[in-house]
Write a structure and sequence with these properties.
2 domains; 118 residues; 0% strand; 5 helices; single chain; mainly alpha
C-alpha cells in the first residue's frame, strides 16, 4: 500500500503583532529610556534632599563636596587627555580632501578596534 504525500497550499505568513504591553516593555528597556530614568531619579533624589535638609544645608553638605571632588577629577582627566586632544586636532587638520578623510576614518576604526580588544 503506497501512501501519497499531500501538497499543502502556500499560505501567507502570519503576522504576529506585539501587544501594547510588550511594546511598552521594550521601549522601557531601551538605553535611551534608562538614561531618562537615571536623570529623573537623580532629580527626584535632589528634590528629596532639598525637602529634608533645606536648600542651604543641601548645598553646603551635598552639592559643594561633590562639586569639589568632581572638579579635581575633571581637571586631572583634562590634563591627562592633552596628548590625545592634540593628536585628534592634528588628524582633523589633515582631513582637507576626500582621501585624507578616508584615511582619518580608517585611523579612527583602528583606534576603536584597539580599545575594544583591550
Amino acid at each position: 500500500m503506497a501512501t501519497t504525500a499531500r501538497r499543502r497550499r502556500a499560505q501567507a505568513p502570519v503576522v504576529v503583532r506585539s501587544t501594547p504591553r510588550h511594546r511598552l516593555a521594550r521601549i522601557a528597556a531601551s538605553p535611551q529610556a534608562r538614561a531618562v530614568f537615571v536623570g529623573v531619579g537623580t532629580v527626584g533624589l535632589a528634590a528629596l534632599g532639598i525637602a529634608l535638609f533645606g536648600p542651604k544645608r543641601f548645598n553646603s553638605q551635598i552639592v559643594q563636596p561633590v562639586r569639589q571632588a568632581m572638579g579635581e577629577q575633571a581637571e586631572r582627566l583634562w590634563d591627562d587627555s592633552k596628548p590625545l586632544r592634540e593628536e585628534i586636532g592634528k588628524l582633523m587638520g589633515r582631513a582637507q580632501n576626500e582621501a585624507s578623510r578616508a584615511d582619518l576614518v580608517r585611523s579612527f576604526q583602528s583606534w576603536i578596534g584597539h580599545f575594544r580588544a583591550s
